[in-house]
Sequence to fold (345 residues):
Amino acid sequence: MPFKQQALLRQKLFLLGSLAIGSLLYLVARVGSLDRLQPICPMESRLAPGLAEQFPLRTLQYKRGILHELRKGNASKEQIRLHSLVQQLPRAIIIGVRKGGTRALLEMLNLHPAVVKASQEIHFFDNDQNYARGIDWYRGKMPFSFPHQITIEKSPAYFITEEVPERIFKMNSSIKLLVIVREPITRAVSDYTQVLEGKERKNKTYHKFEKLAIDANTCEVNTKYKAVRTSIYTKHLERWLKYFPVEQFHIVDGDRLISDPLPELQLVERFLNLPSRISQYNLYFNATRGFYCLRFNIVFNKCLAGSKGRIHPEVDPAVVAKLRRFFHPFNQKFYQITGRTFNWP
Ligand code: A3P
Fold:
């Protein structure tokens, strides 16, 4: 073979080889990130009862794309028309608590085929300007969904805002309310860390947590500090109970949602009267992030944004001890009202 042809052949072989190695490396990386890989369950069994009978299998497979788009909060005009998609008011709301794990809870519930999330925090009930825009404005902020699906939104400020329980009651007195809580001091420090990060981004200085949490004059816990006040869960819940019976609330353990999310999600599925569809397959631990991430299917998985899971500053143990003593009676009351014990220190 002439030398020129040989060189051409070598070049082609080299290109093909690189392509094969590249594809192999991609696959290895992909499977590596999908640790504990399991087969995907068939589409029909992932749908709420009734839907599988409503659509023949071929249609269901075609709809896989739509369900996925709906979960991402997208739907084209054509899909909306073709499948009679609707914007529905939420049948369940994650009302708080800020830094309790509200985003993780919403995203994880959204793994359920019968759930569609409102991606943004809408702040309809806690913001007077938004509230004045009326219920149709609120509905217009909701994602498109199939009529049998339930829409869920989350706005953590609802839990602590005075006017919200009455406003939600006026919209739907039988709505289901989800509250995700973490150990109160961890939550308060998480809250502080978020504000601190915001200040640092603007090159501003900020007080230490200890200075904010303890009143320098009395040496007592500073109940005027918002991060402390928000963690007095029972005080806020009591306001809500003036409008809704306790059975309409479900308390999610935010600390367990971090360490072992599936059992917590199964409790929520039961509370929402949904068939159990979220499985271990949908959740995988990402060692780099140090958190569970979400797997929708073999190609689509995601972790929460980097702003979730910040490193907290160390807090003076004497201040922690003081805060524990302060929160103890409120925590006891919270366990008593909700019927869920957390054994917080
Ligand atoms: P930290 O940043 O203090 O760790 P919210 O969404 O209500 O703002 O709550 C944020 C908290 O969600 C984070 O607080 C983080 O600990 C928690 N969280 C729970 N599950 C998570 C997950 N799978 N990925 C990232 N953060 C998660």
